[in-house]
Design a protein that fits this description.
Number of strands: 39
Strand content: 15-25%
Largest sheet: 8 strands, mixed
Strand order of the largest sheet: 2-9-8-7-6-3-4-5
CATH architecture of the largest domain: 3-Layer(aba) Sandwich
Mean pLDDT: 88
Number of helices: 22
Helix content: 25-40%
CATH superfamily of the largest domain: Type I PLP-dependent aspartate aminotransferase-like (Major domain)
Low-confidence stretches: 508-513, 515-529, 615-629, 660-675
Number of domains: 4
Bound molecules: pyridoxal-5'-phosphate
Radius of gyration: 31 Å
Shape: globular
CATH class of the largest domain: Alpha Beta
């Protein structure tokens, strides 16, 4: 409550739509009831959310009216055409663009609108394409058209000072555009054009950077068109004339659309899901009518043709701008839906949405900026947020940052995303398709970027830190329905998960706690006479299905014989796991070695399935991963097995068997280099290593922590048993987490090497209670609070079996476990 009061004291005039038809509380209670279920959605820069009322209105509209293809003369068609014309007006109105000056061309999104500009722009070898460093990949892609036609391309930095040196403050802001390296392709294959000095040039910038939220000064439009020489002073482009300006308003227009009557850009692009969440797959290009005349379109189609003759080179195109450019039938139902979104935005007003959303981003920025670890070190580095004045219009409702540990090292952004998701917070990480801004704000040089690519880093992968440096950042962004409570929950999450408080240790010295040491390190002294033994052995023949425990089992070169030797694959080739299909945990398995049979059972199937493993079962047959199917005896057998699994999991799938004969595959090895821990030995379909070992004592410690939490929260929960973690080997004895320090170990006569802790994911939050699959946030959330090491949440130890070729080995429950600690 105090936090709310503190917030309202500073931002009360801006927050919550005090003068609107509904205040924020009412909006949330009536139009976003689905968010009450604990989701904190903070990725409005990715896509904002539709309101339930908006969808109700669309549903009523569609179920009460008849809409048909507008390309005909019927009443229904012309009613649809009228609706589309109305929608165009609404879009133009939203940007204060007069229909005399501008046309609205519907596209499938902002990207398609940008592509249309790139494709049709009148490039010549004397043209220049300039674009601000902070641009989305969809803008950078225009470069391909420019360079392909022999034009030059160049990224620029837009710098703004309060006023020009030596000039009066009243003369307004001084904007300078500084160029980077000029790019030009070898054009020897292109026919040389005569230089006539009448080439058109294009300048592109976003109204709001989707990486930092920084807003560009829209005076740039006029400066580039009318005062090019001064604006581009010192660059090779300063003398170029005929500049056309493109504003990428995809992000910016959700909370503050550019006013085109004041800033007459030639092209503006937008996607409607960014404005009001629905529909997706619809955007628009707003184009100045005089600029549209210069665009060169090659393709014609139904929709854009007035007449054509099939067997000679004759075509007459439609003349109205939108008819000339909109190929095919318009997406008329999506277009019909946008008026319900605009109605909503209009009722709130753009300026109130701007104030509401920026009050939240300002609050979060200020809070993040003030965070300190117990040792005084800065927690958060914000990008592009130097200016923290709410009504400056310099910064949109986006906060982008990375977090640091007390020792100055970076937290990987994926760690933040993973923990946020456990707390029900949806945020975005990476470079947000804006490589220029990412490089600029993270200070990544060309050689950093190229070596990151060489190290295997691509967009959306798991490489969040390379050589200790972030490859991207964390972004939270607010929408018109975001609330203070959400912003506060986010800040509380950052504090509880990433800020290291002061902690007293034995000699009274105060150090910064958390995040720096391995939890096991504190236990060194307690471990004088440990005595460990093997408590259980479990085999999981089919990846992600239930396993079975035995008192003894053969070991082979892939680990436990038949462990993860099969997996289930979806129709499109994807590997099915409990993460996608939680019900897989309800499929039970058993192998009778003497009979050579794998038996599988599911409550969803009447009969048990028996699969012959073949008499040479100790040397599984050679079926390479990625081969077409599990080549069981014959086609009928294959169909029988696949039908059984399709019934058991409720979707089309097939069973695949792995060959352990001579390949060294590992799923993660194939999917993403670097994720598989054991690159040395043979493993079947296990993700990272042959064995997972879990200590009963470590599970008991975790249970104590969960119990303490439950007491605080006044709830009771069943104790976790070690099988929640899908171990192959459970050991008993010693102290919790001593296994963290083991380098090698012997179980009976068998030798194993530790490959380190197992990085846990959401799968351990899936439980199977009385035949029902349940999902919760635990135990991952609790583990995250004390078992995080370098971005990973570790629990259990991965092992490799050091096979002794001479002996046929069986591992037995009860055998002594002898670790070797280096
Ligand atoms: C600034 C910016 N430009 C362009 C795009 C591309 O938009 P769309 O994917 O809707 O085509 C986005 C989407 O995130 C964006 O934020």
């Amino acid at each position: 409550m105090i936090a709310m009061e503190e917030f309202l004291k500073e931002f009360g005039d801006y927050y919550g739509y005090p003068d609107g038809p509904k205040n924020i509380k009412e909006i949330r209670e009536t139009e976003f009831k689905r968010l009450d279920k604990g989701v904190v959605y903070l990725d409005h820069a990715g896509s904002t959310l539709y309101s339930e009322l908006q969808m109700e209105n669309i549903f009523n509209d569609f179920t009460c009216n008849v809409y048909g293809n507008p390309h005909s003369q019927s009443d229904i068609s012309s009613a649809t055409s009228d609706l589309i014309a109305d929608a165009r007006h609404q879009v133009l109105e939203y940007f204060s663009a007069s229909p005399e000056d501008y046309s609205c061309i519907f596209t499938s999104g902002a990207t398609a609108a940008l592509k249309l500009v790139g494709e049709t722009f009148p490039w010549t070898q004397d043209s220049n394409f300039l674009y601000s460093m902070e641009n989305h990949n969809s803008v950078l892609g225009i470069r391909e058209y420019a360079l392909g036609q022999g034009a030059s391309a160049c990224a620029v930095d837009v710098e703004e000072a309060a006023n020009q040196p030596g000039q009066l403050a009243s003369s307004g802001p001084f904007i300078k555009v500084k160029h980077r390296a000029v790019q030009k392709r070898n054009t020897s294959k292109l026919q040389k054009e005569e230089t006539r000095g009448d080439a058109y040039n294009l300048f592109a910038f976003p109204s709001e950077c989707n990486f930092t939220g920084l807003r560009f000064n829209l005076d740039l439009v006029k400066l580039m068109k009318e005062n090019t020489e001064t604006t581009l002073q010192g660059s090779p482009f300063a003398m170029s004339k005929r500049w056309m300006v493109l504003i990428d308003a995809a992000k910016g227009c959700a909370t503050l659309p550019p006013n085109l009557s004041e800033y007459p850009a030639d092209f503006v692009v937008v996607s409607f899901y960014k404005l009001f969440g629905y529909p997706t797959g619809l955007g628009a290009l707003l184009v100045r009518n005089d600029a549209a005349k210069l665009l060169k379109k090659t393709y014609f189609s139904g929709g854009t043709v007035a007449a054509s003759i099939a067997d000679i080179d004759f075509v007459k195109r439609r003349e109205r701008v939108e008819d000339f450019f909109e190929d095919g039938s318009a997406s008329f139902l999506s277009i019909a839906a946008i008026r319900h979104g605009f109605k909503l935005l209009k009722s709130l007003t753009s300026s109130a949405i701007w104030m509401h959303t920026t009050s939240l981003s300002m609050y979060v920025k200020k809070k993040l900026q003030a965070l300190r670890h117990g040792n005084g070190a800065v927690v958060c580095v914000l990008y592009g947020s130097e200016n923290l004045k709410i009504l400056s219009h310099k910064s949109g409702p986006t906060v982008t940052f990375n977090l640091k540990r007390p020792d100055g090292s970076w937290f990987g952004y994926l760690e933040v995303e993973k923990l946020a998701s456990l707390s029900g917070i949806q945020l975005r990480t990476g470079c947000f398709c804006n490589p220029g801004a990412c490089a600029k704000y993270l200070d990544l040089s060309h050689s950093d970027l190229l070596s990151n690519v060489e190290a295997g880093h691509i967009c959306w992968d798991g490489n969040d830190l390379i050589n200790g440096k972030p490859t991207g950042a964390v972004r939270v962004s607010f929408g018109y329905m975001s609330t203070f409570e959400e912003a506060k929950k986010f800040i509380d999450f950052i504090i509880s998960s990433f800020v290291s408080p002061l902690k007293k240790i034995g000699n009274g010295i105060i150090v910064s706690g958390r995040f720096t040491q391995l939890p096991g390190e504190e236990l060194e002294s307690k471990e004088s006479f440990p005595s460990y033994y093997l408590k259980s052995v479990t085999i999981y023949p089919i990846k992600s299905c239930a396993g079975f425990s035995v008192t003894r089992w053969p070991l082979c070169r892939t680990g436990l014989l038949h462990d993860r030797e099969w997996m289930i694959q979806g129709l499109t080739g994807e590997i099915l796991t409990q993460k996608k299909v939680p019900g897989m945990s309800l499929i039970s398995t058993f192998i009778d070695l003497e009979e050579g049979l794998l038996s599988v059972e599911s409550a969803r199937c009447k009969d048990k399935l028996h699969i012959r493993i073949k008499t040479d079962s100790y040397n599984p047959r050679s079926h390479e991963f990625n081969s077409h199917a599990n080549k069981v005896e014959n086609h009928n057998e294959e169909t029988r097995i696949n039908c059984w699994f399709t019934d058991a999991i409720g979707r089309q799938c097939k069973l695949l068997r792995y060959s352990s004969s001579n390949s060294k595959h590992c799923l993660n090895r194939n999917k993403a280099p670097g994720l598989c821990r054991d690159l040395e030995s043979n493993i079947n379909f296990a993700n990272e290593a042959q064995f997972l070992l879990i200590s009963e004592e470590s599970v008991a410690d975790l249970n104590r922590r969960l119990e303490a939490k439950d007491e605080d929260d006044n709830q009771a929960r069943k104790k976790l048993d070690p099988y929640r973690f899908r171990p192959n080997l459970v050991i008993s004895g010693g102290e919790a987490y001593t296994e963290d320090k083991w380098r090698t170990l012997a179980i009976g006569d068998h030798h194993f090497t530790s490959l380190g802790g197992c990085n846990r994911c959401q799968m351990i939050n899936i439980s199977n209670e009385a035949g029902q699959v349940k999902k919760s946030n635990e135990p991952l959330t609790t583990l995250a609070s004390y078992r995080r090491v370098k971005g990973k949440i570790l629990f259990g130890t991965l092992l490799r079996y050091e096979i002794d070729a001479k002996t046929e080995s069986w591992i037995r429950v009860g055998e002594e476990v002898n670790p070797d600690i280096e």
